[in-house]
Amino acid sequence: MKKVMVFGVFDGVHEGHRWFFREAKSYGDYLIAVLAQDHIVEHLKGHLPRINLAKRFEALKKEVSVDEAVAGDSKIGKWEIVKKHKPDVIALGYDQLRLKESLEAHLNEFGYRPEIKFMNAHEPAKYRSSILNKSEAQNLK
């Protein structure tokens, strides 16, 4: 079985995420979605996710293309989740360049070399969490 791993906040799963999951899964048989923990999101983005980790986890478990949802590492740059699951492919979103740089800097620690693939964007001007969250907030006013 060929395992594929994706990373994200997934703060409200939308069609862009679903596209990402389907494209990522096309590289293997089993898709593991790694959710960034709330304190990691706050550190990286300067704010907490709108939806807490438990609820984001439950939402991902309902996604057809996601075979397993797991919480990411509690510390940035540890990559324990990769070492534990040993995915054959790590599929990154079109906008995850910093994540790619960090992964490449730690590849020698894994004990094997997963293939790293970049996924295409699906209408990024429309299906991007930051845009959708702003639109939703404006609709609530």
Give an account of the 3D structure.
By secondary structure, this protein is an alpha/beta fold. The protein has a single domain, classed as HUPs (Rossmann fold). 40% of the residues lie in helices and 17% in strands. The protein is built from six helices and five strands; from the N terminus they run E-H-E-H-H-E-H-E-H-E-H. Strands 3-2-1-4-5 form a five-stranded parallel sheet, with helices on both faces. Strand 1, helix 1 and strand 2 form a beta-alpha-beta unit. The longest helix has 12 residues. The C terminus is likely disordered.
Brief summary of the model shown:
The protein has 141 residues and is an alpha/beta fold. The chain contains six helices and five strands; from the N terminus they run E-H-E-H-H-E-H-E-H-E-H.
- Distance between the amino and carboxyl termini: 48 Å
Overall residue-averaged pLDDT value = 88
CATH domain fold name: Rossmann fold
Q: Judging from the principal axes of the Cα atoms, what is the shape?
A: globular
Helix content: 25-40%
Q: Which band does the percent of strand residues land in? A: 15-25%
What is the radius of gyration? Answer: 15 Å
Total of DSSP H or I helical runs spanning 4+ residues: 6
CATH architecture type: 3-Layer(aba) Sandwich
Largest sheet: 5 strands, parallel
Please count the beta strands (DSSP E, at least 2 residues each). Answer: 5
Q: What is the H-and-E element order?
A: EHEHHEHEHEH
CATH superfamily: HUPs
Low-confidence stretches: 129-141
